[in-house]
Amino acid sequence: MKTFLFAFLTFLLTGANGAVAPFIKPCTLTDSKCLTSSATAAVPFIAPGVPALGIPSSDPLHIKKTNSDQGDMKLTFNDLNIYGLSQCVFKTVEIDDAKSNLHIDLECPLYANGTYKLGGKILIIPAEGEGNFEIKTDKVGFTIDVKYKTITDDKGDKHWKITGYDYKYDLINKVYFMLHNLFGGDATRAKPVLDLIDHSWKELITELGAPIIKDIVKDAVGRVKKFFLAVPLSELAQL
Ligand SMILES: *[C@@H]1O[C@H](CO)[C@@H](O)[C@H](O)[C@H]1NC(C)=O
């Protein structure tokens, strides 16, 4: 049984037809329902990384440093690890080939941790600290519009080349944001700041989380770009 299962998985993963991305179910470009389910089915194969296609793991996604300075507040995050991208679910995938536009709606759970350094004010309260932080939410929605053009490689295969993108995001479920070791671990001084964060999470994360979200989208689109350059269009779509 085990051997059979292994053989079956190997068959699925390597493909019977020598395809570069055998885990993709090709759809006609106008079939949004097929594109949506095909994209969701591909996530578990692409998120852990596809070394053969030069795509590194995206779960966790590592970000060295990001700055969330806002007015009176200086906030830096370092060595972020972002978990959850392999559990993203596509809600809509639509292609408008005449406009070379790929429209994506997806929802992801996210958990990120790393270290932070804060000085100045959070909203109106003076706050400072340095230590570990965590951000967690069950669901963030992303809407991404990707522009592409069709190019032909040396072998004569057509590919999509991503040329730009726009995105929006929506904090669907509550976001928990924890800064450990505020005021050098002084719990009495930290409490009003943590209460404020808990109370005003939406406003805060919309401002503070923006650079993190920007990096996540940039990285994710970068992977899709590599993927499209590596995989011929004929494997992605029934043209
Ligand atoms: C971040 O979370 C991961 C997974 O839960 C854990 O293994 C790691 O130790 C955490 N890192 C920090 C700095 O808290």
From TrEMBL:
One CC-aspect GO term: extracellular space
Originating gene: PpJHBP4816
Protein name: JHBP like protein
Record keywords, A-Z: Signal
SMART domains associated with the record: JHBP (SM00700)
Domain of life (superkingdom): Eukaryota
UniProt cross-references to PANTHER family, sorted A to Z: CIRCADIAN CLOCK-CONTROLLED PROTEIN DAYWAKE-RELATED, PROTEIN TAKEOUT-LIKE PROTEIN
Entries under InterPro entries matching the protein: Haemolymph_juvenile_hormone-bd (IPR010562), To_sf (IPR038606)
Signal peptide, first to last residue: 1-18
